[in-house]
């Protein structure tokens, strides 16, 4: 049984699902209309009231999660947490409230997870499809064929900023509505050629906003009853007739949805006009369902982060033999160091496989280039935090350790750094080793024992080890070298 928690700009949502053959069955759902995106002040910081409301919701979710026997839980945060300037201050309290790490995912990763969720509910494996998701803070467009994603893009426009910009006091007028649509169209016009209707045969809308619009159209007999431009124009006219968000009275429309209805509808009309979409189908699946399927894939050893690393190696022509050799040695050294947790095991392995991709930029300072590329690249399946950790490991693979000095206070990170540095050192010295040939400890100090014959057979090893001792001494960690055999 898995759990997916989505900390969106409009709502916090929770799904608990059980994999049952070919389907993911939802056994529990929860939703809190937190409206985190509306809780950003003029400087881009989350207000105290917004954080307080979010923590209350997370505490409630924690109680729900605690009542189920869960194999894995993944908590993802989207646009508001991506842009909030004080997100790093709020994050520790938020993680303590829900009891699990919170992953701030990129817009592109959000789009991929959304598509995974949508694709899992659709039968045709050969269908070429466009998926649209309008969230509180961002909008995602994804092209795919069956389960395979071909193109994904995230746009920084969502129901919260659009509503606050054009309908801040709740008033809905014809001129301002047209201005909201025109503004939204300008955000998608450059992407129109990429998502042209010739590239897909069916369009799907996955977000709560789109489903609410579809419900309002069908339950109130607007337009042709379908999620079409004709129907949306009819809904737009009805909202203008109401004149104010507080007066919206539509069958099936929840009060908290009514507040952002105008902003969401303006974006949806804009996308459909700009991309030439005549109609689309609402689908009751998206980000949370995608997260559940991603957890299922990881549980069955089909972690798509592995493919991302492999693709990145190919893109920058990394030497696979050297990368695998360093990864093998780093993994062996890390095991000798007996980390307290397994958090860095996979991250170290992937960092080792990518440690030389910076050579595609320059041989000088390649580790710095590699670190930048890893931290800022679009790597499907990875969170911002994971990429930052791998970037730090790659940056620390050689040279002074002062550049990651503060992070070395985390014991397992320091052990991962040591393991990678030793692996790179042995590669450069052309030494093939097995774990049983090295004695390695790291507590308050580093102790390493090497075979004497290596020093005589590989003259540069003594030089490298002395440089390594100096690097660790510089950050206040004693490095002791002994020879045996």
From TrEMBL:
Give the first-level EC class, as a single word. Answer: hydrolase
* Cleavable signal peptide: none
Q: Which SUPFAM superfamilies match?
A: Actin-like ATPase domain (SSF53067), HD-domain/PDEase-like (SSF109604)
Q: Where is the Ppx/GppA phosphatase C-terminal domain?
A: 305-468
> What are its E.C. numbers?
3.6.1.11
Domain Ppx/GppA phosphatase N-terminal, by residue range, is 17-297
- Sorted alphabetically, which CDD domains does this protein's record hold? ASKHA_NBD_EcPPX-GppA-like
Instruction: Tell me which Pfam families the record gives.
Output: Ppx-GppA, Ppx-GppA_III
Q: What is this protein called?
A: Exopolyphosphatase Ppx
Q: Which species does this protein come from?
A: Herminiimonas arsenicoxydans
